[in-house]
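Entry type: protein chain
Record version: 2
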Amino acid sequence: MAFPERVKTLVLESASPGLAEEAERQARIERDEVLARRIESQGLVAFVDFWENIPLFDSQKQLASEVQKALRAERLSQTEAGLSSSLRGMGTGAQPSLWHHLEELACPVLLITGAYDPKFVRINTEMEAEIPNPQLDIVPQSGHAIHVEFPSVFGKILSTFLEQHT
């Protein structure tokens, strides 16, 4: 949105244009602050143990054990300070709402979301209705992180989209 002249195509995976209402943003800021303090007080391992078991990532429990181990190792490679700062500075509550700007997107936009992620299916369906040149792909049997759960499907959707728009 800030530099539309620099973007020829846009790909968004399980994305959101932010929270539309100020009250929603404030509530999210408060929840993110509680989580940031939890990370700082309980440590990285406790946070990763918690994070891996939120409903958003349930579908990842079906992945091969070596993929699950790699995801865990990546999560554990973070730092408490980095994660808590990310929540405070870049969490959903801290982000401005872009809902009223979606109609300004002049480039082709690919929205990819997993069928097992109903919240983001709803959000992306609503985004599709606002964006002038959208393509929405809902990947069956996938959750929030399609690129992790079905990398070849994600890659095919992405390459087909880019071939059509470059």
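Comment: Strands lie at 10-13, 109-114, 134-139.
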